[in-house]
Design goal:
The complex is a heterodimer of chains A (104) and B (183).
Chain A (H helix, E strand, L loop, with lengths): L3 E3 L3 E9 L3 E3 L2 E8 L2 E4 L4 E13 L2 E3 L2 E9 L4 E3 L2 E2 L2 E4 L4 E3 L2 E2 L3
Parallel strand pairs in A: 1-3, 2-4, 3-5, 4-6, 5-6, 6-7, 6-8, 7-9, 8-10, 8-11, 9-12, 10-13
Chain B lengths: L4 E4 L3 E9 L2 E4 L2 E2 L3 E3 L3 E3 L4 E2 L3 E8 L2 E3 L2 E9 L4 E3 L2 E3 L1 E4 L4 E3 L2 E3 L8 H10 L3 H6 L12 H17 L2 H20 L1
Parallel strand pairs in B: 1-3, 2-4, 2-5, 3-6, 4-7, 5-8, 6-8, 7-9, 8-10, 9-11, 10-12, 10-13, 11-14, 12-15
The chains are: A mainly beta (104), B alpha/beta (183).
Chain lengths: 104, 183
């Protein structure tokens, strides 16, 4: 269980900084940075630059993404923005528009 | 996943507005306004640097800003609040620190016996409290405090009133100065 959860029906406009895991099921606008894993669930809307240890996206994400380890775009994800991580996977059924940078 | 409850974790900092219809639990730091339709719980490790608005507010941590509850505000032991507290029901437990204006009964919804019982338990003057059930604008839990609170404004008013005596004093001084100038 993630230590920080942005539930469905909640909107955060601003900057979220954390040293722990984050699960987003609601709406985040601004900036989201976490040291650990970030999960953007199906139904979530993130309009923010995202920096994290690893990132799993199943919802809608607009913004640039940087992850220390990996980025996984799951089926059903809608991502617009540049993705930078050592490992990037895009599942069949994920929508994506942007650059991928797997440069380490 | 159980993501219908929002939790701002201990190691998390939010700078900005938090809005929505759902409930919130804050264990970390929120440096922005919170306005939600659900309940808000600010845990012992939680800190909020701005106003909080919600249905039921439970505070065990620190808040610097106004607390406005549509139903109730419970300030539990260990809570620190600097700001105004407004809700139909307000309970301030022993061990809670509050600095600000407290108003209960806003909107006049005076019902729901269960939390009321809690409020009475926390209140040193339950009789006065019950007597005012039909009426509004009574601070239930901080019964001894209102006197101090009411005293404070009068003290302030008294402090505000003195200027007139000071002005003549100044005028005297000015007059003396004028006299000095004349010499």
């Amino acid at each position: 269980m993630a230590s920080t959860v942005i539930g469905a029906g909640i909107t955060i406009e601003g900057e979220i900084t954390t040293d722990e895991d984050v699960v987003v099921a609601g709406t985040v606008r601004g900036k989201l940075s976490a040291k650990e894993a970030i999960t953007i669930e199906h139904g979530a809307v993130v309009e923010a630059d995202v920096v994290g240890g690893s990132l799993v996206v199943a919802g809608a994400l607009t913004g640039n993404v940087t992850a220390a380890e990996r980025v996984d775009l799951q089926s059903g994800a809608r991502v617009i923005g540049n993705v930078k991580a050592a490992r990037v996977t895009i599942a069949d059924g994920a929508q994506f528009k942007g650059n991928v940078d797997m440069d380490v | 996943m159980a993501a219908n409850v929002t939790i701002i974790g201990r190691a998390t900092r939010v700078r900005g507005r938090v809005t929505g219809a759902a409930s919130l639990e804050i264990r970390g730091l929120v440096e922005g306004e919170i306005a939600v339709g659900g309940d808000v719980t600010i845990d012992a490790t939680g800190m909020v640097g701005a106003g909080v608005r919600g249905r039921k507010l439970v505070v065990r941590g620190a808040v610097k800003g106004d607390l406005i509850g549509e139903e109730s505000v419970l300030l539990e032991e260990g809570s620190r609040v600097v700001g105004d507290v407004r809700a139909p029901r307000v309970a301030i437990a022993p061990g809670a620190l509050v600095r600000g204006y407290v108003q209960t009964g806003q909107g006049g919804e005076q019902r729901a016996p269960a939390p009321r019982a809690q409020a009475v338990a926390a209140a040193p003057k339950p009789a006065a409290h019950v007597a005012h059930v039909a009426h509004v604008a009574h601070v239930p839990a901080a019964a001894p405090k209102p006197a101090a609170r009411h005293a404070a404004p009068t003290a302030q008013a008294a402090a505000r009133r003195p200027p007139p005596p000071i002005v003549p004093a100044l005028k005297k001084a000015k007059g003396q100065m004028a006299k000095k100038r004349e010499h």
